[in-house]
Amino acid sequence: MDQYSTIISGFGGQGVILTGKIIARTGMEEGMEVTWLPSYGPEMRGGTANCTAIISSDLIGSPVVTEPSSLIAFNKPSLDKFGSRVQEDGLIVLNSSLIDDCSTAESNNVIPLPVNEIAKGLGNQKVINMVALGGWSKASGKLSLSALKKGMKLTLEESGKAKFVEINEKALEEGYEAAKEESLASTT
Amino acid sequence: MGEKKLMRGNEAIAEAAIRAGCRNYFAYPITPQAELLQWMAENMSEQENGTFLQAESEIGAISMVYGAASTGERTMTSSSSPGISLKQEGISYIAGSELPAVIVNIMRGGPGLGNIQPAQGDYFQATKGGGHGDYRLIALAPSTVPEAAELTFEAFNLADKYRNPVIILADGMIGQMMEPVELPSPVDTSDFPSKPWATTGKNGRKSNTIRSFALGAEDLKSINQDLQEKYRKIKEAETRYEEIGVEDPDVLLVAFGTVARIARSTRRLAKEEGIDVGIFRPITLWPFPGDRLSELSRKVDTVFTVEMNAGQMVEDVRLSINSDINTPFYGEQGGVVPDPSRILEEVKKYV
Description:
CATH topology of the largest domain in chain B: Rossmann fold
Radius of gyration of chain A: 15 Å
Radius of gyration of chain B: 20 Å
Oligomer: heterodimer
Distance between the termini of chain B: 43 Å
Strand content of chain B: 15-25%
Strand order of the largest sheet of chain A: 2-3-1-4-5-6
Number of domains of chain B: 2
């Protein structure tokens, strides 16, 4: 792997920023070069919040990415804004609970996941981001599920949220499994 | 050096300052620099004799820096572009009084209130004055988060060594982004150079006075001559830069801070197309590494400057080169961050 960039985008409160931080933190723990860049403009109020996480085997130049390797879109405005920019053969993990229209570029690997329903099934709506991240792990193959669990644990513990580690682990696992089924379904 | 931590630029600068022995921090909040202030608020109180004070204004904060620096203690303030403008009077006084202090500018779009996106429009302000009178700041421009920590740490040493204010000139992107950082070990404050000039309480010695005032023309002339002599020494000893692939490039690209790291991506893209783009990155914007740039310019036909402003450092580039090779410029403004491929498009016009 040379460089793998991911834009994570959604409404404020969907856990966009944390998801990106966990990708960066996990990459760092795995010995990679990483950058994490938030959008901090006026769009953070009300509209879409987004951030960019890059993991790389080499030194990272620009932390700003116009054409990401992958996109995690939690809402429709996010897919509209970034969907068309994803690299050819790139990955799009999208929240099919909120996005009806799953059509994007034919060349993209699109993984629709009903993250709201999966999170609801786990009894905590707040973990939709980890469901999506678990799916991203399976579909991208860039960071393993066990590495992400570790990165998530470290990140939550450092911000005094250790009690949420268990539910977030479950969410990562559920997302991973759901993506497995989704990619099986699309190949058959 | 310890373990790697994933930190925002603003946080890394703040923590590096504490580890460099900064125990006096005064500031007023402003985006995109707010996390720096926040980190100081959370961590300065844990330091012995640590003072964190959110001032009533930027002018108040820089005046507090003037006072605290007079005692010889390591002192810092930080802000973003409009706030740094407000501090200029105080910075001139601090430079005129020859006090060590560190000022951090996490630049944003201007002029005026501008916006909160990354920009490099304060190059002139940091390197050519900003406040009144013939003074210079040592201006350090980090291009990554780990370098922001490293240069902040070093800024305190330089400030003490030359009794001169040092400015860290970064931008909203470096301030906001996260990268792995290996923080320096905390300094032993007993290793600091002695400061016989500091106002520490007379206790039997001759009294010390800190001022930037000399009524007689000859007196002030002599003070200015001493300052210029000091600036000459700084220029000789402290000029810093980084070079990447400058041996025999097709085009030499000059950029600082955020743009310099983006230029690395441009260099990679160019390589795929068989174009060799070398990078010259001034780390000290003042003193500007003009002599070295002049040497390098003799090997190329084009020295291409890219900045996030309308063309400020490019003036120093052109002054340094002093020959008739191409010295084009490409800039973005208003918080727009130049794209690596867009820079390459511009570069290709000269290959």
